[in-house]
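Hey everyone, long-time lurker, first post.

I ran two proteins through the pipeline my lab uses and got sequence/structure pairs for each. Pasting them in order. The first:
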Amino acid sequence: MSSVAVLTQESFNEHRSGLVAEQAGDEEAPAYKDAFPPLPEKAASPEGTQEPVNAWTSKIRPLKSSVITQVFHVPLEERKYKDINQFGEGDQAKVCVDIMHKTGAHLELSMAKDQGLSIMVSGKLDAVMKARKEIVSRLQTQASATVAIPKEHHRFVIGKNGEKLQELELKTATKIQIPRPDDPSNHIKISGTKEGLEKAKHEILLISAEQDKRAVERVNIDKVFHPFITGAYNKLVADMMQETGARINVPPPSVNKTEIVITGEKEQVALAVAMIKKIYEGKKNATTIAVEVKKSQHKYVIGPKGNTLQEILEKTGVSVEIPPPDSNSETVILRGEPDRLGQALTEVYAKANSYTVSSVVAPSWLHRFIIGKKGQNLAKITQQMPKVHIEFTEGEDKITLEGPTKDMQMVQSQMEAIVTDLVSRMDYMEISVDPRFHRHLIGKGGANINRIKDLHKVSVRIPPDNEKSHLIRIEGDPQGVQEASKELLELASRMENERTKDLIIEQRFHRAIIGQKGEKIKDVRDKFPEVIINFPDPAAKSDIVQLRGPRNEVEKCSKFMAKMVADMVENGFFLSVPIFKQFHKNIIGKGGANIKKIREETNTRIDLPAENSNSEMIVITGKKENCEAARIRILSIQKELANITEMEVSIPSKLHNSLIGSKGRFVRSIMEECGGVHIHFPTEGSGIDTVTIRGPAEEVEKAKKQLLSLSFRFLLFQLPGSFSNQPPGFFFPSSPAEAAVQENGEANGEMVEEPAAPVDPTAPRKCDVIVLSGRKERCEAAVEALKALVPVTTEVEVPFELHRYIIGQKGSGIRKMMDEFEVNIQVPAPELQSDIISITGLANHLDRAKEGLLERVKELTAEQEDRSLRSFKLTITVDPKYHPKIIGRKGAIITNIRTEHDVNIQFPDKNDDNQDQITITGYEHKATAARDAIQAIVDELEEMISEDITLDARVHARIIGARGKGIRKIMDEFKVDLRFPQPGAADPNQVFVTGRPELVDEAIDHLLNLEEEYVSTLGGRERGSSKGFVVREAPWQTGSEKAPDMSSSEDFPSFGAPVAATNKASPWGPKRF
């Protein structure tokens, strides 16, 4: 008798699953040499025998070539291109080249004697099959035919992901068109060669014939008898499915359906239906009794996830029917054999009374002390009695206990002892404090309230802001409660006397008040320690400085800071004095004596430019009168050192910018040419005509002449070209008395004096009169030219609500118009609510500016009307349960609707009262179209049904796929929604399919096919204990060798690991290293 060696499951667990299937109980174990054939090398064994050489090589199959060659013949009558003269050229050749590029196969064409076309195709199998399909469709005339098979068989022709259909088309070289699921037709259209048509029809009919063998049967049985059919824990229905091979889908208790669905082969389905009906016939006359059980005890009869009901059914064979939770009925119905009803009733009452509910009186404010920090106090009880549930209800002076009757008495006595102890040594007090002081009582980061809690060992509850409650609750030791309440009331009383005041201080002064590193504000805070001073964040650009503290101290601090600001404003005046660079050192004096003396005597700050700077400006800062005094002192020093004079020249202010030139080009040229004189123009927009020239007397006079000459030149530049030869003389007033100056800038030295006469208030002032002299016609033309240079104003009426759009963001709109039309546009202040906009400029510019403004008004009016049209709103009422479906995955569906119809779609917020209202905003016709699109989705969703099926839980993971890829593909393909059971569900095999009726049926069939496919791959493996991998005639059993040690690195070496050499004989045979 041969000996048998056993390798245990623990040692060969992984190898067993991958190498060989589990052997049947009575099957003979393989021999060791059969299971582990020796290596092919010839090697002498220790006994001198030789191992078989080809034990491994005999099983190696020769490799086949991956390149194949096939020849296709196209008869003359079926050829598309029959022009024999163009063989190898023309369209036929182009098609062949295109097929080779597209498929990667090699084509060779030849002409047969019967003018048929022979095509030899070489390449890989897949490429050859694709080339064959292309040849048939593009080089051979096509025929078509239809084949009719039942609509429900179409999906089997298509196959998983269309793979079956693609295989058929390649195999038969045809094009197969299957009607869409929503098409009622059952005809499949085939186009291709005659031979291919016959093959395709044959294959399709074979597929349909196979499906005809399957059947679906629906049996209606009252819901109350379903437990007898499923059996306890679904064991009976599982046994029936295993015995018959059919799939039996029984609706779960939560679904109010009576239909049981059986699918599978016809014989299997018929057998399963017969077994179900037999069970029903045996139970339909079962006896029933009704008993009253308190509603609160129903959950104990049901048990966790319905396990107690299943347990009673398993023990007694009696079904227990519990009324639904939303029903007020307390009647429990027992259904079964008469002799088993008594035992079942006993079980029901035992389960109902196995748990008791009681309560312990405890003031609600003590609840958190009973629970303890992080539940420590309760943990001691629940660890001893884990089945007892302790419930605290906020606002109620009781604690509810629920648990097994035997444990309840001990838990209740422990809870009562805890409550009694806490009541004897704890107290509470409620004090009333205005809610606006609550955050001050809490303090920054809870500093104040935490200090009081730690000091007095109490708990303080301050209500949140949204409650607007005055009551603050203090709980803890009686003495601590009294002391904490006293301290809190004192703080609140002190805060009631507090005042908050906002000071308006320009932000530019904030840094000066704070001082370098906060030194100045520190002095203020030290002077008023009870006042809190808060400056706004610089980024906020706010002028409000907040003071908070006792009323009197806040007033004093406010006056002090107001005085500081007033001093800063008064001392903030500054002026710039131009002093020639060479005199700066004289103004500074030896060791800074002069500048120091001026600073002290005038109480000003005087800043001189750096030595390496080109600036000649000295800046004086302080009170206005002090700055003027310092300026006079500095100028006097310069006059003493040089022959400096100052002269004022009157030049129309409108010419000042032209005289200054771009970046000061003209005026700087004059100053440099005239020995560095200083020329000072008044501030732009001031309307002052006086220009001041300072410097050496002769240089000042020279600069004056150049300025006047340049100003006349700029003025005459505006006049007609005919005056360039004989210009008239212009006489501009340089002071209240007129100075006559000719156009070329030379003074004639004559003063025009008017005889004394009464002053007419309506007559123009002499300083406003320009006198022209010259030939009459020239002077008249010059007058017209000068008048054209005088700006005029016109008014345009523009609706007030459009003003802000005309001005634009930060004035960009109105600036653009002023630059474009060379005018000034004045928009009235908002508080005036005026519709009149003034345009000022040259007469020839006003018409264009007015036209441009009116055009802009027309554009804005059109935009306003468009905005009004776009703001049309409508609402649609949609059940909230459909909202996620309308939104779609990652918002895909709703985004598509918004983009397609150019509308805004708003769903209700979580806290919104109208949860079913969806708001659509946009053009009326587009909003209506979007509403119709949403309604179409809702209508489709309302047509959907939900079916539940039983799928073996073992295949759920494979159907779902990695990261849900598989289930998403099924849902996208069949347009349905799938819901798999959660872990720990009562029925782990139950799957819900939701969608349109016809799509749900197709999806269910697909899922059942997948289940059948996946279950078959499991091969019915046993998952129980195993004896391991068994072999006969192992070396360690037939000889004196020891069995290999599985923990030894020598007997079982790792790849790449060094193995120490040894002379010990191995059970595996001689070692070759």
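...and the second, right after it:
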Amino acid sequence: MADQIPLYPLRSAAAAAAAAANRKRAAYYSAAGPGPGAERPSRYQLEDESAHLDEMPLMMSEEGFENDESDYHTLPRARVTQRKRGLEWFVCGGWKFLCTSCCDWLINICQRKRELKARTVWLGYPEKCEEKHPRNSIKNQKYSVFTFIPGVLHEQFKFFLNLYFLVVSCSQFVPALKIGYLYTYWAPLGFVLAVTITREAIDEFRRFQRDKEVNSQLYSKLTIRGKVQVKSSDIQVGDLIIVEKNQRVPSDMVFLRTSEKAGSCFIRTDQLDGETDWKLKVAVSCTQRLPALGDLFSINAYVYAQKPQLDIHSFEGTFTREDSDPPIHESLSIENTLWAGTVVASGTVIGVVIYTGKETRSVMNTSNPKSKAGLLDLELNQLTKALFLALVALSVVMVTLQGFVGPWYRNLLRFLLLFSYIIPISLRVNLDMGKAAYGWMIMRDESIPGTVVRTSTIPEELGRLVYLLTDKTGTLTQNEMVFKRLHLGTVSYGPDTMDEIQNHVVDSYSQTHSQAGGNTTSSTPPRKAQSSAPKVRKSVSSRVHEAVKAVALCHNVTPVYESRAGAATDAEFAEVDQDFSDENRTYQASSPDEVALVQWTESVGLTLVNRDLTSMQLRTPSGQVLTYCLLQTFPFTSESKRMGVIVRDESTAEITFYMKGADTAMSTIVQYNDWLEEECGNMAREGLRTLVVAKKALTEEQYQDFESRYNQARLSLHDRALKVAAVVESLEREMELLCLTGVEDQLQAGVRPTLEMLRNAGIKIWMLTGDKLETATCIAKSSHLVSRTQDTHIFRPVTSRGEAHLELNAFRRKHDCALVISGDSLEVCLKYYEHEFMELACQCPAVVCCRCSPTQKARIVSLLRQHTGRRTCAIGDGGNDVSMIQAADCGIGIEGKFRHVGRLLVVHGRSSYKRSAALGQFVMHRGLIISTMQAVFSSVFYFASVPLYQGFLMVGYATVYTMFPVFSLVLDEDVRPDTAMLYPELYKDLTKGRSLSFKTFLVWVLISVYQGGILMYGALVLFESEFVHVVAISFTALILTELLMVALTVRTWHWLMVVAQFLSLGCYVASLAFLNEYFDVAFITTVTFVWKVSAITVVSCLPLYTLKFLRRKLSPPSYSKLTS
């Protein structure tokens, strides 16, 4: 049925029916209320031909194909939800919305954002700036000195649990409501807040130190009096800043001068956009031509820059020099800029600062840090609300049974306070201390050395992840290219057979060298020999030689020689031999692939020793230097997917057109062959980046004809790009296929098994990268992010809603295939079909988004959280990943150790979640059991609102008597780490959240009610003559029951757990001697006391032990077979 969707405008007899359907559909959309649906009728009227495409339904379910009526309702139904009205809306969250809106309005009033404006920046004169610009300081802190305490308190009291205890503690200042001592309420609350504030302060101080380190980096600033050192944070708009090689650019600048003769430099932008290619930046020609550096102050010039923008790939501005006649005007574009966060890769550069601090591109693309709350914390918050309702219900029942006598409302409040232990304040203390313990364990794990836990509030999130969003460059790959394969059609060379290539190159050059030596008079005979060569089948040696020469000439690589002390700086390269020394040479190019190819030709004997704008020099294995004149260069573009050069050999005057590019672009250009497509597929499956290399010999006449047409096309005013492309394409016909090269972007160690493990654990992996589509697809396959058996759907570039519609319908018909989509197409899909696209993408086993900006990465993460409600984790290694990491539920910043992520999730994530779930429920049980005893006690004694245990007994119960054993649950483990690593499928169960749910909570409530009832009734049945004995018997039995329940809950014993049990028991026994006001020492030393306590404890615990034993026998957990 899927293939029968009409994909073109209907112009048939069915047009009338279609028109009726359109009217029906338009009526539906207009009735849909505000939102995307409401805009559609007007858009249909505007778009003539494409409107028919847009009207077609985007079907989201198989049922839609069978039922024509439902087709048109599928799209808006995804978005339109029934809105609640009036009181119902207010109760169901409307109050929260109103409060938030009011707070936001107040904040906006207090902190009105300054309007961003275009600016005129005078070179070297920051004081001439008309506006005040922000400081150039980086700030990643959440709070300031003034907002720290209010901010932390707000974060704490937004949890119902803490707010409830604040109210309860404050109520103790009212004499009529006072129950026991003030410290029994305020001490635990104070301790919770102290722990939280201390932890936040430490995290905040670490952030402050990291910011300070970056802001204190020193740079050279050019002034009239010479160079001065200035801190990064003190740089102002208008300053002239000198940035050395391998130094970070401190602010957004316009590039004025460089030490490179060509007037250009390379910069690394991987921290800004994730792209591994080096970018070529060009200095403003007017300032580059100035004789000396100090002359920048002798001219009167300014830069006009557009207002600060988010887009890191565009810039518009002008450079004006006023003191020349006539004034010089130069237009400025993205190639004249140096953005903050990039790194200078060649030479020393001087730039004028145009944007600082918050207005730089990198900061504008970074979101503000937010406090993250874990899913477990939110679930516990829900449970505490349920407990509060139970508390209110219990208090109302007590007052009702009293018969509403006297001041019943006061009694109600007193009951609320008496039973307030139902919601234990120690829950937050224990959980926070548990989180700190998990962080410490992660940092101490020798299997993942060097791990630092930056935020100690969300370790349990690592055990609940469904989506993992990872960067590519530096995260999955090392960004180091290695040449792996050369294929000539009949013969293939790999890493083991490179020495054969070297021998062929040496042989062929020794032959040509001897020929050249025997023929010194003219260059004509070799040309004749060359022209007759195609008639005979070439030997392997000559084909290897041609291929290597083509790879050595067809590129944009420049060799750079580090200047050494004492070397003559003005000497010409061609004349000074020591400049060619291999150890002193480094290669620079816009792409690491290019460098890998040139380094490979050097390793087989053909070395690139020099390159400028017009020529290139190669050194042969015998040491001879060959000079080639660079006639034309056609750079690589994402549209053409190929690059080419036309060179003239100085020794033979031969003109050759070399070209290399992607197999998709080159397969139609080269002569017919039967091997290229197959071999490209083979190399791609190995995870290699392939390039097809071809050549074409040109006569002088052919080249002159081409040059005149090419120059004419470049001067045309209309459709220049198309005309230039057409002229170049006239050459790109019937080219001789030389070879196919394969280069590998080396993966980080252990990436493949780690991704395999995470996939088995049920985690869906999305790769978000700023890199090119081909590169991203290649890495997705080589890293096994996309498994070998899976198809890959490459989403075609779309620009309009109609195109997006058709492409989504095409993608919808594919099953179990990975999606590869570019950032631009993604933007269009999200604009028109957000819900539909996310629903389709979430069904894919893997998704690759390429050409993503930092803000797009963060948006994808936010949409994924919003549409699925599942937990997400973002992994990255650079500044361009910060927004994504902040947007995710859990973020991991790594330095080339991706293999550790597997252990972090399946071992530490699992144990953190399981332990916190057990700890949280046990602490609730501890509160519920004592509240049940209080309820039984009050009901027996005529519903009196009198506390059963007072003063120190209550404080001791929550601290010294039970704290250590209960907290020792953070050492428990249900599955050994090596088992969890071996069977990652166990992780799938965690995402269902079964360890902490209303079901498990209800089980603990029933246990608490049973045990509390048995302990209290038992003590009353075995009542002695005095009331003090009831307290002694019931409290001792309670402590013993708690210790036994901890032992019942533990799955794997640790020696510290045993110590904690005996320590707590020892503390209790020792304290009996001092608590004379609560216990009768003479009675508690008798045999009667011992047997009564033992009997009550056995009755309260034995049934539970029996049930646990039977459950393990009859219904063991999924992992029990693995551990046995």
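Reply from user beta_strand_b:
Welcome! Quick read of the second one: The longest strand covers residues 736-747. The radius of gyration is 37 Å.
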